[in-house]
Amino acid sequence: MQPVQAGPLDAPPAIIVSSVTMASRAHDDAASCRPPVLSCPARADRRAWVARGVALAPGLGVAALDWSARHDQITAWPRATLAVYVASLALGAVLWAGLVVAASAPRAWLARALLVASAAMAVGAQLYFFARYHAFMNPRAVVVGTSMLPSVGQQLWSDRASFVRALGPPLALAALLPYALRRLSPVAPWRAALALDAGVGA
Q: Contact at 8 Å (CB) between 189 and 104?
């Protein structure tokens, strides 16, 4: 009779157990190194927070621009003036957020037109006016400017490149923010109508 050669299964039990233990430990270590996967509720919650940030971005951006342009003047205001100013910033944030949410709904052409027009007049034109005259457009400036309409028109035409540069970023954001919000969190038509009412009311 020929001697029977020992196969892999004929190894001593201690060696087999130790091999299985080492393999299980290697599997556990590899599994512990894998990046955690967010669950569906956690991912939805994160997208909701990002959507809120997108809606609030225009109001916060306007406040940041005003602070960077007039921080010395703002810090010198009395407390009553500061309180009115902060209240106006809050109402402005509601206005911009309402317009962005309303414009993100399907076929919300009126809200999108209002958002673009508001961005052009309330942000772009004001930035150009401040860069030119170191003051924002207000009723007093409008009264003074009505007597100078011919010269203002000629100045705008001669400085049209700067005027377009001032209008470009606000108009681009007004077009992109509703699209980004719609990708993050689709808005129902009734929510868009409610947001438009809140924004116009502010």
A: no
